[in-house]
Amino acid sequence: SVDCSFSRGVCDWKQDADDDFDWNPADRDRGDGYYMAVPAFVGHKNDLGRLKLLLTDLRPKSSYCLIFSYRLAGEKVGKLRVFLANKKTAPVWEEHKGKDEKWRTGKIEIFQGAETTNSVTFESERGKGKTGEIGVDNVILISGLCPED
To answer: 16 and 47 in contact (C-beta within 8 Å)?
Structure first.
């Protein structure tokens, strides 16, 4: 497994230069490192911020599981989507409202076929809300299929 967390991860993260705003590091409550977040008040409604994970060493014709923690805190905070580079048009994962402010776990299967997925993009879309944030943390890539809960 490959740890792509932000505090001590070994992965290559890039801010998208063609979007409307950047993701920013935010301190964890427990004080042990940080996660990446977009506060609700950044930008205008429907503005997009993209954080890209570059995957250079994935073996072709293999499957992987991307596991991550996420939270959408606040009323009408917006949307969080995940795109794989070889399926640019439609998100492979999307969440648009949090039931509460708790962190949840997202899982995405990445099947390597003829074309290799060379990046995963976390996209935050600004909602109408003025408080809260969209956050992503603990991004881990595991070889093989995603485990059942």
So the answer is: no
SS3 state at 112: coil
Across the chain, mean pLDDT equals 88
Confidence of residue 88 (pLDDT cuts 50, 70, 90): low
Find all residues with CB under 8 Å of 125, minimum gap 6, and list them: 46, 47, 48, 78, 79, 80, 81
Strand runs labelled E in 2-144:
2-3, 12-15, 24-27, 34-39, 48-54, 63-73, 78-84, 93-95, 104-111, 119-126, 133-143
On the question of pLDDT at 87 being above 90, the answer is no
Tell me the Cα Rg of the chain. 15
- How far is Cα 119 from Cα 139, in angstroms, rounded to an integer? 13
Angle, CA 98 vertex, CA 63 and CA 43 arms, to 5°: 95
Q: Set out the domains of the chain in order of their start, with CATH numbers.
A: 2-143 (2.60.120.200)
Secondary structure tally for the chain: helices H, strands E = 0, 11
pTM here?
Answer: 0.91
